[in-house]
What does this fold into?
Amino acid sequence: MGKEWIRVEFGAGGRVEFGVAFVDTSISSFQLGQFQDDRYRSRLSTLLTRYNPVEIISAKRGVSNDTTQVWNAACPNALHELVSSNAECWDPAKTLRSLAESDCFKVNGDLDWPEGNIRPLLDNSSSLGLATKEESELWFP
It folds into this structure.
């Protein structure tokens, strides 16, 4: 596995919601995910143990000590890179716009979003097709 990105949003009652991106540059593969977790971060722990990332990238702010403890325990050898959420992290619109302008998802010159990774997350009412559904915002780090 290559780089992994984790984005966190805190909810009521100790529940947290994670947005994750797994990128394996050796085989040009990526996976996006978003899920709610309990206060013990059980799903996050399972996910990190299963995929055993070599690097975790997260925002400098907004990650609790509980979450940091989980990823330190689940993957103690992973490198941790903390980035500024404003300067170094793109919002979903900028991410989609950049992908659309590149040749990554073009077939015969036309944009063709992947069925399994990106297309289900897009808001179909967007005229340009460059907006995410509100419930999918954490998927795009």
Q: What stands out?
A: The chain has a mean pLDDT of 77. Residues 92-133 form one domain.
